[in-house]
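Bench notes, afternoon.
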Amino acid sequence: LTKNIKAALDRGVNPHEIAVLTRNRSHAKSVLQALMDASIPAYADLAEDVLEEPITEKLLILLRAIHEYADDEALFRAFHLDVFGLSPYELYKLSQAASKKRKSLAELLASVSLMEEIGITQAARFHDLFTQLGHFYVLSHNESLNGVLHTIVRDSGFLRYMLKSKNPILVTAPIRALFDQVQTLDKDHLW
């Protein structure tokens, strides 16, 4: 397949005129990977199960933490995402300290000095992310869904995380599909 496509491109066929149809989604992923391994630019519309993709699930965990701002369980799950590179051990220590001090996780995250007091070395990073989630929460009540989603993905580090992945085109496809769906909802005033 890749040899035939390369030959067609070498003959001057416009890449936009080349299409590969696959039997199912799993096969489409394999074909996309083979094309990318052969340095052939490709795009696959993999939107069918967009909410079941691991990258989308991570985004949904983040969105829940924004929607339920200051909810300890939602924060705990979001702060464990590898997107942010935070220490799970430090998050464990925060959780234990919150229980011991009878404070919420949110109360500790809101105070760099309280976190430093219990030995959290990444206190500033934890605090900055917590503060950023608060800004996203406010934004979510004042902007369009499409605009908010774009801002969250861009400013939270989520986009950078996806682009650093081994296969950024494949990883970003479900998020692009989600953006398309959200844009339709916004355009049709269904949200």
